[in-house]
Amino acid sequence: DDKAVVPALTWLTPERCSGRGGKSSVRFSAARALEKLVGSRGEAAAGSANALAAVRELAHALLTDEHEEVRSAAADALGEVVRLQMPTECPREIPGEIDALARALRGDKEQEVRVAAARAFGKIGVKTAPPTYRLLASANLQGALQNDKDIHVRVEAACALGEIGDSQPHGDSQPQRAVSHFQPANLALRQASQNGSFLVR
């Protein structure tokens, strides 16, 4: 039931769960619950008011929660929920949830959160996604693969880029143009194959 999403939304922010001591464990569980509740309903949840609210609250938690385990859970949940919420047409502006994941991937101080953000971009860049979403996911993952100092983040970015680069953007009728979209990603992966760490390779 879509109404089941509401309690999880209520518990996701420190202010709203203050009656429960504002515990990070409550917010962590709320983020995981949103991922399961929206994910279990699949396409039936897409576009619903509560599912869209889940996207907003998860993006907010990803950028503002002081506990890395909550931010990490929010990133994972956001990747799954956004995957279900993506429009069939390309947006004119970068969606706020994509911007939140990009900011987390570039700037969160905790490796665990950056790994989760990379994993989320891997979900968002699936072959059925609009080309804009796939390109945004690919670009952010390339940046992480080339610039992040943590090996775990680079490994996750490489794995996600490999999945994204294997399939043609949905709805693109020109295969050659579709391939050119992902040439930078292929270059990043070739460069990563020469990385000093066998895990990245």
Question: Can you put this structure into words, describing what you see?
Answer:
- The protein has 201 residues and is mainly alpha-helical.
- The chain has helices spanning 5-11, 24-41, 49-64, 68-85, 96-107, 111-124, 131-147, 151-165, 175-181, 183-192.
- Helix 2 runs parallel beside helix 4 (68-85) and helix 7 (131-147) runs parallel beside helix 10 (183-192).
- The longest helix has 18 residues, at 24-41.
- Mean pLDDT is 76; it is low at 167-186.
Helix content: 55-70%
What is the averaged pLDDT score?
76
Q: Number of helical runs?
A: 10
Poorly predicted tracts of residues: 167-186
Q: What's the gyration radius in Å?
A: 17 Å
Structural class: mainly alpha
The strand count comes to: 0
What is the H/E string?
HHHHHHHHHH
* Largest sheet, strands/sense/barrel: none
The fraction of residues in strands falls at under 5%
Distance between the termini: 44 Å
